[in-house]
Each structure stands twice: as structure tokens, then as C-alpha cells.
Hints:
333 residues; alpha+beta; Immunoglobulin-like; Serine Threonine Protein Phosphatase 5, Tetratricopeptide repeat; two-stranded antiparallel sheet; 11 helices; elongated
Amino acid sequence: MLKIELRPTxxxxxxxxxxxxxGWKQGASALEFAVRNNQNDGYLDGAGKWGASKYWNSLADxxxxxxxxxxxxxACLVDPLLKDRTMTYLLYLxxxxxxxxxxxxxxxxxxxxxxxxxxxREKSKxxxxxxxxxxxxxxxxxxxxxxxKQEEQEKQxxxxxxEQHRPDAPAEPAKRTQSRWLRWxxxxxxxxxxAGLAWWLIPRFMQSPADIKAGGEAGACSAPVLAENPxxxxxIQSCLKTSPSSDEVLAxxxxxxxxKRCNLVQRLYAHKAQSGDAVIALAYAREYDPANFKAGxxxxxxxxxxxxxxxxxALERDPSQSVARERLEALKK
Length: 333
């Protein structure tokens, strides 16, 4: 089975990617490939559309480096695959000398061709925001300058009037009374500020870290959330943000099976297994394994090749998986 990765080109051009293929032994001439969506068994055609029939595309500009095949591909392949990053895809490769297949891994930094327009729009919006901020700063500076001039004029006018009405003897008692009232006023304002700050901080100091975590993450990966969130992709994203354990993911998968949310089941399996969770990879392999397959569930039929891939991935993440090693050896016989 091949190891295949679709990653960005060195230039990082949106809509362009580079296929990295490891394990191919049949030469680099006259290669063709087909891509299958492992969730609904659709095949990608040359126009970037999904259909029921297997469609073979020519793989051009192929080069060999250190025993690996490298080939540049365009938006007709990149864009359809990036519409849903949680899907699992199989890539078939063939030429006159032989054929092979492997699960297609997609690099997280790969961008679709639509990112070009998005980048331009964001740049335009940023320039517009900068222009508006500059104009706002200029207006504020002008207003502040005018206010400062007005205050200075008013101060000069007030000083002039005070000079005209100043008595011969200074009124010291009146000044002391004014100073006393000012001190009391400042003390009152300070007391109000301290009381408000205490009212805001004390409940937060009394709240434990467990309560804080529970308030933000409770239920994101629990069975009740299935009834609250019918959107599979949104549910997966909110669950994975909490970094759930393998047991929590398996419990959610079990609940999704009972609720016939099969699309959610396969997406959770594939995403967690490809993210390095050996326990989930082993469980997913057993779903396809002919020795453990159960009809009437979310997996339509047993598939020894798919089971072998997930067993290999489980062993790659955790070489101590004895069950995965035994079943992999049995499937290869």
C-alpha cells in the first residue's frame, strides 16, 4: 500500500499542490491516477466533479527524488479535495507495469484557488480600514487641537476676570474649606472604585479551575450534544477543540451509531486516527476487518485493504499494539 501526501508547492500558490508518493516500484512513465471518496464511494473526474464511475487522470510532469515520486497538480484536484478536510480519500495509481493504492493525506497548509480572491479582498478591506483610521486620527487630532486652544482662551479669560475682582486681602478660610471638600470627594471616589473592583474580582477568585473548564467545555463531546447539534462538521469542530480522550471519542461514536449519524461516525474515526490516535485507528480498522465486521451498521461492507491501512497506521503510532499486528499479518496471508 502506498503512502501519498498532497502538500503545497514551494511557491505556496493557492489552487496548486504537489503529490508525494512513497512505495511505488513500477517506474514513472505513463502514470494514471483515480481518486475515490471513501465516505460515499464517488470518483473524481477530470473536471473536478464527483461521479459513480472510476475516472483515470493522466499524471504529468512526474519526477523521481530519493526513491519517491513528485508531481505537480492543479485546482481540478486541489479544490474538490479541500471542500471538506474531514473526508477520507483513496488514490489509485497505475501504468503498464502495475498498479497500487493508498490513503491520500492532505497537508493542513494547502490552500484552494478561492484563497486568491479572498486574499485580495482582505487586502482591500485592510487598506480601506487603514485609510479610515488615518482620517479618524486626523480629525481627532484637529478636534483636540481646537479644544486645547479653546480651553487656553477660556483659562486666560478667567484669569483676567479674577484679576479684576480679586480683593485686597486673600480669603484663606474659603480656600481651606474648598481644599477640605476636594479631599473628601477624592476619598469617596476611591472607595467606590475599590468596592466595584472587589465586586468584579471576588466571584472569579472563588471559582475553581474545574468549574471554569466545565463552563466552557462541558458536553462538547458527550452523547446529549447529538440532539442539540444536527450539523456534523460543527459538532466535530467543537468537540475536537476540547482535546477529548480516546474513550470520550469512542463514547460519542457509539452514541452516533445509535442515532444513525453514520457520516459523523466515519468523520470522527478518520480525523482522530489520522491525527495520531492509535486507539481510534485500531477501532476503525476493526470496523472494516472481515473478522469483526457487523452488517447493518455505519460501514456498508467489510474491506480488508482499508482495514489493513488503519491497522498499519495504529502500529505506526503505537508499535505495542499486538492486536493490530496479529490482524495485519492475518489479512496479508
